[in-house]
Design a protein that fits this description.
It contains six helices and 13 strands. It has 275 residues and is α+β, with helices and mostly antiparallel strands. The chain has a seven-stranded antiparallel sheet. A four-stranded antiparallel sheet has the order 6-11-8-9, with no helix packed on it. It is globular and about 65 Å long. The structure holds 2-oxoglutaric acid and fe (ii) ion. 2-oxoglutaric acid binds next to strand 7, strand 11 and strand 12. Fe (ii) ion binds next to loops.
């Protein structure tokens, strides 16, 4: 089919990111730059992945869905777990902060919405797989958790945390007027080194290890959050921060627990079958 007739034409910047042919010299350069960034910082930022027209369309669609977001507030530690009873009172695993935000689940997305089309697009997943240097990549099998629109309104905040997955891919749609910045401390911990000392300092306000990624609409971000603590700063102003979160994994069949579904979407059953 001619390229002009395809849904992505004029929305994804295929001049800068020619992902339809991964042998293309330009995309190979993009991929090797992204791999370098991932190696050095655990984050690969690809600005202008969407064209300005793509950003406009994605914003319109996301604003339509924004009302259906489930909003939740909770308090917890940076490790997203319950600290063991044996830990001392002042252990950093007992340090808590509050999070509040809204989320729209995969099963709430109309089929033709751009964010969903990008998520389900084979060339896009292959491109992400290359950036991550993985032999195989799969979409999450979870009917709610596979694709999310995260909605953060005035006063919302995503606390400092380490992810429980190896990587997350996001596509920034809309920025808040003030706040809503993504902050992280590259590789502050390692598989065999929790580095509680530096994590503790950071949680108590030390900024020496903090790097900020501004939330430019249209930016694609591949982020390895298991070892790099990160947060989204408090939203100020009336404009909500909107961002798409794509669930990919290096193994098939990834599902969310009922607990996670309940706190994130306010329900455990998907809206309809067969997505
Ligand atoms: O909203 C973001 O930019 C980051 C989201 C995030 O860290 C997460 O969902 O684990
Ligand atoms: Fe995260």
């Amino acid at each position: 089919m001619a390229l002009e007739n395809q849904w992505f034409q004029g929305l994804v910047d295929l001049e800068v990111y020619p992902i339809l042919d991964l042998e293309n010299r330009k995309i190979k350069e993009v991929i090797s730059r992204a791999k370098c960034q991932l190696d050095q910082l655990g984050a690969a930022e690809m600005t202008g992945f969407l064209t300005p027209h793509g950003v406009k369309k994605l914003t319109e669609e996301s604003v339509q869905m924004e009302q259906s977001a489930y909003w939740n507030a909770l308090t917890g530690n940076a490790y997203l777990d319950e600290p063991e009873a044996s830990l001392p009172e002042n252990h950093i695993r007992r340090w808590t902060e509050s999070t509040s935000l809204g989320a729209v689940g995969y099963d709430q997305f109309p089929e033709h919405f751009l964010l969903r089309r990008i998520y389900e697009w084979e060339p896009f997943m292959n491109f992400i797989r290359e950036v991550l240097s993985l032999p195989k990549l799969y979409r999450y099998a979870d009917p709610m958790g596979a694709l999310n629109l995260s909605v953060m309104k005035k006063g919302d905040y995503l606390r400092w945390h380490f992810d429980q997955s190896d990587f997350v891919t996001s596509l920034a749609v809309r920025n808040s007027e003030v706040g809503g910045e993504f902050e992280y401390a590259p590789r502050i911990r390692a598989p065999k080194n929790e580095n509680y000392e530096d994590v503790g300092k950071l949680l108590k306000g030390d900024r020496t290890k903090v790097v900020t990624i501004p939330n430019h609409p249209g930016t694609l971000l591949v982020f390895q959050g298991r070892y790099s603590i990160h947060r989204v700063t408090e939203i100020q102003g009336e404009t909500s921060r909107l961002i798409g979160l794509f669930g990919y994994a290096d193994e098939p069949g990834v599902m969310s627990s009922d607990y996670l579904r309940k706190i994130r979407y306010g329900r455990t059953s998907p809206l309809k079958q067969g997505i």
